[in-house]
Amino acid sequence: MKSDSELIADRLTKIIKNKDITINRLATLSALGQSSVNAIFRGDSASPKLKTLVKIANGLNLSLTELLDFPPYNQRPDGSSPDQETDRWKKLGQALTADEKKRVWETLTGHDFPPYNEIEK
Length: 121
Prior knowledge:
Structural class: mainly alpha
Order of helices and strands: HHHHHHHH
Number of helices: 8
Strand content: under 5%
Shape: elongated
């Protein structure tokens, strides 16, 4: 398994290639020293600090979440992803009867269940 520094370097390499910018340009956009950014790409920075990753994300016009949205950082300890979990809940919801949906709605919200035509709007 790759180290965090290797994973981050690989991710940044793909992003700057897609954005057609150089490592030097990334350093400038991120308001970081060239040597700091080079260290990340070379793997000399064993674990880039959060503050540094935020600056890089901002320089790339990304949120930190977008920057780190790749495996293994976007996976849960059980290996599932948020999208897989959303799909699982959708399937569960589709399997409920109308009465079960009403009870779940009322339990979660504390409000009466709105008519179906209200939800579909």
